[in-house]
Specification:
The complex is a heterodimer.
Chain A: H1 9-18, H2 21-24, E1 29-36, H3 37-41, E2 45-53, E3 56-64, E4 74-78, H4 82-85, H5 94-103, E5 107-110, H6 115-120, H7 124-129
Parallel strand pairs in A: 1-4
Antiparallel strand pairs in A: 1-2, 2-3, 4-5
Chain B: H1 13-23, E1 29-36, E2 50-51, H2 58-70, E3 74-79, E4 93-95, E5 109-111, H3 114-133, E6 138-143, H4 148-153, H5 168-171, H6 173-186, E7 192-199, H7 210-223, E8 227-232, H8 252-261, E9 267-269, H9 276-284, E10 290-291, H10 295-299, H11 303-308, H12 323-328, E11 360-364, H13 368-379, E12 383-387, H14 395-402, H15 409-424, E13 428-430, H16 437-443, E14 449-452, E15 456-458, H17 460-466, E16 473-474, H18 475-480, E17 488-492, H19 496-506, E18 511-516, H20 530-539, E19 543-546, E20 549-553, E21 557-561, E22 567-571, E23 574-577, E24 581-583, H21 586-591, E25 597-600, H22 610-621
Helix pairs in contact in B: 1-2, 3-6, 7-8, 13-15, 13-22, 14-15
Classes of the chains: A alpha+beta, B alpha/beta.
Chain lengths: ~140, ~625
C-alpha cells in the first residue's frame, strides 16, 4: 500500500468513535489517552487522545510524559502497537473487542480520575463498556 | 475491617460486642482489625477504619485485648497504613511512587519523600508500642491487598531510584526498616507478624512474580519477624483470589512454598480455605503451621467448637459470596449473607433467646427464607412444620446452585446445612406438598403462626400479552430440566437468573442471545460478582443486547426495539424468560382472617437475593 493510500490513523479512529455514540452520549467532559506499551514503559512518546465534550468523542494526538501528567481520566496501554495506527481489527464491535483485550491483559488501564468525579461527568456507561469494574471490586 | 466504628477512628460499642464474639471463637491467636498509625489519615482507606495514632484511642483497644485474654488466646494488633488506597478523607494518597490506581474509586497518588518515609516508620513504631501498652501481646504489619507495605515491595508501584527502590532487596528496605523499628519499640518478648503476598496476581501490570514474593518472605524472616501470614492478591488484581469461583485449597501451594524458604518462622494461611478438615490435612502434611480464618468465622463464629464437638453438620458454611467485601468497599459496615447476626451483636433482638411462649409455627416454602425462619424458630423452642411443594429443599437456590459455573458446592453445602438442621431440630417436614387455605383449615386451631415463604415466580401476565401462543419457557424450569429449549435460545432478562440460565445453556452447547432492557447486565448481582458474569458472557460467546425492549414474541424470534427506536428480529428456536419475577404471596389474602399471626418473608415479599431472604427469615424467627 502506498503512502498516499495508507489510512490516516486519526481518521480511522474518528470513524470508529462516531459509530460508538451510545458510550459517549452521557459524558459531559473527559479525556481518554491511549499509548503503546513501549511508550508507557519509556516515555515520552505519542499518545492517541479521545477528547469527549457534550457527548461526542474526538480523536486527536497528544504527548505522554508520565502517568500522572497526562491529564487523562482513563489511560489505556495497548500491547499491540499496530492497533494505535489502525483500529480495523477491533471491528465489528470495537468496545467488546477492547473489553476482551483488557480482560486478557493485552490492554492495561489506569484510572487517574476519582470515581465520584467520573460519575459526575457521566463516565459510568463508558467505563462499564470497557469492562472496568467501575464501582470497585475485590476478587 | 468491619466499618462498625466511628468516622474519627474510635472503636464503638457495636465493634466491642462483635469482638467479644470473635474472642470466643476458640482461636488461639486473634488479630484485631487494621488500625491506621498516622494522625494525618493518609493510612486510612475506609470511612470507619480504627485509628491508633494517639493514646486517646486506647481504652477500647484495652477492652478488646481483655476479651481475647479472657479466652486464653494471644492478642495481636494489626497496624495498617493503606498506601495507595488510603487518604479517604484527604483527597490524595501516598505511595513510594505516584502510580495511579487501576480502579476508579481511589485518590490521586503522591510520591513520598525520604523524610515522609522515615516519619511513617516512626509512626508505625509508636503505634506498635501503643498496642503493647493497650495490652496486646504483639503486632502485625501487612504487605498485601495493595496497602503501603505492598506498594514498597512491588515492582509495579515502587519505581523509585533512591535506596528504597530498584531490585527486590532495595524495594524491601522500607519493610526491613519497619521491622527493625517495631522490634526495637516493642522488644523481643512481643511477636511481630507480617502478612505477605505469596502471589500478587498483578503480573500484567508488572507486579512481583511468585519468586519475588518468596524472596520478600525470606528477607522478612531474616529481619526478625516471628510469623508470616501468606496471602494472595491485591484489590486491583484482575484475577480471582478469594471468591467462590476459586476452588477451596487452590492457593495452598503458596504457603507450602513459603514454608520451605523461611526457616523456623511459622507460616499462617487461610486464603480460600473455609474447611477445617482440609486445613487440618494441609497442616498435617506440613504445608503451613496455623490455619488462618476470617470469613468462615463471620459465617459461623462457633465453627471451631462444633468441630471439637464432632458436629460438622451444624457449621454454617461461608459461601464465598463476598457480600462482606462488597459492603466494605462501599464504605458500609460488613454483613454476612448466611449469618444475619453479624454486625448486630450489640442488639439483643438479634439473639435467638428461648421463646417465652412456645407456638406452633407453619412455614410454607422450603427455600432459604423459609428454612432460616424455620430453623431459627425451632431453635427457640417453637414447634415448626415446614411445607415444600417440590421434592427437595432449597427453593430457587438449589436450581441456581446446580447450574452455577462457580464452585457450586459452596451453595449446595448451605442447603445441606439447612437440611441437617431440619432433621436435628425435629422440624416436621412435608415435601411434595402444596400448601393451601384448605390444608390450613384441617390444622386450625392448632397453628398459631403461618409464615409465607413461597418465593417468586415468573410474571406470566406480562409476557402473555406479547406471547399469545404461550411459547415462552420459564428460566427456572429450564435450569431444573423440566423444560428443554431448542438450539438457538433467546433469554429474556440479564439479571442473575437470566445470566445463570444463559451461562448454563451456552456451556451446554446452545447458541444464546441475552436480552436486557436495562443499560447493563447484572444490575441485581452483588457488586463484587458482576465482573464474573460479564466475563462468562464474553467467554461463552453469549450475545448480549442491552437497552432493548421486547415488543413481540413469535416462533421465528423476538422483536426488540432499542433506545433509538430501531426494531430488530432476534431469531431463535426457543425463548426463555427469566424476568420479571413477582412475589408468590396469595396465601396472605386467603389466610388473613384465619390465623392468629401471619407473616411473609423472602422473595414472597419482593424478589431480591439470597442475603435478603436469609436475613428476612432470621429476623422473623428471632421475634416469633
Amino acid at each position: 500500500m502506498s503512502a498516499d493510500r495508507m489510512p490516516d490513523p486519526l481518521a480511522a479512529w474518528q470513524a470508529m468513535l462516531d459509530r460508538q455514540e451510545q458510550y459517549f452520549g452521557r459524558v459531559r467532559q473527559g479525556r481518554i489517552g491511549i499509548v503503546s506499551l513501549e511508550t508507557f514503559a519509556s516515555p515520552p512518546g505519542a499518545m492517541l487522545v479521545w477528547e469527549m465534550v457534550a457527548g461526542k468523542a474526538i480523536a486527536g494526538e497528544g504527548r505522554f510524559h508520565r502517568l500522572q501528567e497526562g491529564g487523562c481520566d482513563l489511560l489505556l496501554v495497548f500491547g499491540d502497537e499496530e492497533l494505535l495506527r489502525d483500529p480495523a481489527p477491533l471491528q465489528p464491535d470495537p468496545f467488546a473487542a477492547l473489553r476482551r483485550l483488557i480482560r486478557r491483559g493485552e490492554i492495561l488501564f489506569f484510572v487517574p480520575a476519582g470515581r465520584e468525579d467520573l460519575l459526575a461527568r457521566g463516565f459510568e456507561d463508558l467505563v462499564d463498556a470497557l469492562g472496568v469494574p467501575f464501582l470497585g471490586t475485590c476478587h | 475491617m468491619s466499618n462498625y466504628n466511628s468516622r474519627d477512628g474510635y472503636i464503638t460499642p457495636r465493634e466491642l460486642a462483635r469482638m467479644k464474639i470473635v474472642a470466643q471463637t476458640g482461636a488461639g491467636i486473634i488479630t484485631n482489625q487494621g488500625a491506621y498509625p498516622d494522625p494525618r489519615g493518609e493510612g486510612k482507606a475506609y470511612y470507619r477504619q480504627v485509628a491508633i495514632y494517639d493514646d486517646k484511642f486506647l481504652p477500647e483497644f484495652e477492652a478488646i485485648a481483655g476479651y481475647i485474654h479472657e479466652q486464653k488466646a494471644v492478642a495481636i494488633q494489626q497496624l495498617l497504613h493503606c498506601g495507595r488506597y488510603g487518604g479517604i478523607d484527604l483527597g490524595y494518597c501516598v505511595q513510594p511512587s505516584a502510580v495511579p490506581q487501576t480502579l476508579p474509586h481511589f485518590r490521586p497518588p503522591r510520591e513520598m519523600s525520604r523524610e515522609e518515609i522515615k516519619q511513617t516508620i516512626e509512626e508505625y513504631a509508636a503505634a506498635a508500642k501503643r498496642s503493647i501498652k493497650a495490652g496486646f501481646d504483639g503486632v502485625e504489619i501487612t504487605s498485601f491487598m495493595g496497602y503501603l507495605l505492598a506498594n514498597f515491595n512491588s515492582r509495579f508501584t515502587n519505581r523509585r531510584t533512591d535506596e528504597y527502590g530498584g531490585d527486590v532487596t532495595h524495594r524491601a528496605r522500607f519493610m526491613v526498616e519497619l521491622i527493625y523499628a517495631i522490634k526495637e519499640a516493642i522488644g523481643d518478648d512481643h511477636p511481630l507478624c507480617a502478612r505477605l503476598n505469596g502471589a500478587e496476581l498483578m503480573d500484567r501490570y508488572g507486579g512481583n512474580d511468585e519468586a519475588e514474593c518468596l524472596e520478600l518472605m525470606k528477607i522478612a524472616a531474616e529481619a526478625g519477624v516471628d510469623m508470616i501470614s501468606v496471602t494472595v492478591g491485591w484489590q486491583e488484581s484482575p484475577i480471582s483470589s478469594i471468591a467462590r469461583d476459586v476452588p477451596p485449597g487452590h492457593w495452598n501451594y503458596l504457603a507450602a512454598r513459603a514454608k520451605k524458604v523461611v526457616g523456623d518462622v511459622p507460616i499462617a494461611f487461610g486464603v480460600r480455605l473455609p474447611d477445617a478438615a482440609m486445613a487440618e490435612a494441609a497442616i498435617g502434611a506440613g504445608a503451613f503451621d496455623f490455619w488462618e480464618v476470617c470469613r468462615p468465622f463471620l459465617a459461623d463464629p462457633e465453627r471451631l467448637h462444633k468441630v471439637a464437638e464432632n458436629r460438622p453438620e451444624d457449621i454454617k458454611p461461608c459461601i464465598g459470596c463476598l457480600l462482606c467485601l462488597s459492603r466494605l468497599f462501599r464504605d458500609l459496615p460488613y454483613l454476612c449473607t448466611v449469618n444475619p447476626a453479624l454486625g448486630h451483636e450489640v442488639e439483643p433482638v438479634y439473639h435467638p433467646a428461648p421463646a417465652p411462649v412456645k407456638k406452633s409455627v407453619v412455614v410454607v416454602g422450603g427455600g432459604p427464607a423459609g428454612l432460616e425462619c424455620a430453623v431459627t424458630a425451632a431453635r427457640r423452642g417453637h414447634r415448626v412444620t415446614l411445607y415444600e411443594q417440590k421434592d427437595r429443599l432449597g427453593g430457587q437456590l438449589s436450581l441456581l446452585a446446580d447450574q452455577d459455573l462457580a464452585n457450586k458446592s459452596d451453595l449446595l453445602h448451605l442447603i445441606a446445612y439447612y437440611a441437617a438442621q431440619v432433621g436435628k431440630l425435629g422440624i416436621n417436614l412435608h415435601l411434595n406438598t402444596s400448601f393451601s387455605a384448605g390444608l390450613y383449615r384441617k390444622m386450625c386451631p392448632d397453628t398459631d403462626v403461618v409464615v409465607v415463604a413461597c418465593g417468586s415466580a415468573l410474571d406470566q401476565q406480562k409476557w402473555a400479552v406479547l406471547d399469545p401462543a404461550g411459547a415462552l419457557l420459564d428460566g427456572l424450569a429450564v435450569l431444573e430440566g423440566a423444560a428443554v429449549p431448542g438450539k438457538r435460545v433467546s433469554v429474556l432478562g440479564g439479571g442473575k437468573v437470566g445470566l445463570v440460565t444463559a451461562e448454563y445453556l451456552a456451556s451446554n452447547g446452545y447458541r444464546v442471545t441475552l436480552l436486557e432492557e436495562q443499560r447493563r447486565l447484572a444490575e441485581d448481582v452483588m457488586p463484587t460478582w458482576k465482573w464474573r458474569h460479564t466475563a462468562w458472557v464474553d467467554e461463552l460467546n453469549i450475545e448480549a443486547l442491552t437497552g432493548c425492549r421486547v415488543i413481540a414474541i413469535g416462533p421465528a424470534g423476538v422483536k426488540i426495539v432499542d433506545r433509538d427506536g430501531r426494531e430488530t428480529l432476534v431469531e431463535h428456536d426457543s425463548v426463555v424468560a427469566a424476568t420479571p419475577r413477582v412475589p408468590q404471596n396469595g396465601l396472605l389474602t386467603a389466610l388473613e382472617f384465619a390465623v392468629d399471626e401471619l407473616y411473609v418473608v423472602g422473595d414472597a415479599v419482593s424478589p431480591r437475593g439470597l442475603y435478603q431472604a436469609i436475613h428476612d427469615g432470621y429476623r422473623l424467627g428471632v421475634r416469633l
